[in-house]
Design brief:
The chain is an alpha+beta fold and 127 residues long. 54% of the residues lie in helices and 14% in strands. Helix 4 (72-83) crosses helix 5 (87-95). The protein is rod-shaped. The model has no long low-confidence stretch (mean pLDDT 79).
Length: 127
Amino acid sequence: MATKLSQEELLAQFENLTLIELSEFVKAFEEKFDVTAAAAVAAAPAGPAAAAEVAEEQDEFDVVLTGAGEKKIQVIKVVRELTSLGLKEAKDLVDGAPKPVLEKVAKEAAEKAAESLKAAGASVEVK
C-alpha cells in the first residue's frame, strides 16, 4: 500500500521535475480527475478603492499640459526639450492646452517631466 505524502513532500518531489515533466504531469492530472488547472483570476473590485489599486499597478503614464501659465516661452522651451518637437509644433501644443506632452512613459520619466514643466510655470497633470 502506498504511503500518503504530505504537502511539503509533494512540493519537494515537484521541485526535482523539469518544466516539461511538470507540464506533462499537469496534463495527466487534468485528464485523470477531469479538472482544469487554470490560473485563478480575481474579480476586479468596484468603487474608488479599485481605482486606487489600478493606479498603483499602472506602469505607463501620460503627462498632460493643462495650462501654460505666465511664462509661456519657458514652457515651450521645456516642451521642446522633452519631446524634440520643432518650435512651431511645441508652440501649438502649448497654445492648445490641455494636451498630452508625453504619453505612455515610465513613472519616473513622467514625474521628472512634470517637475520640469511646473518649474517653467506650467500646470501639469500626470495620468
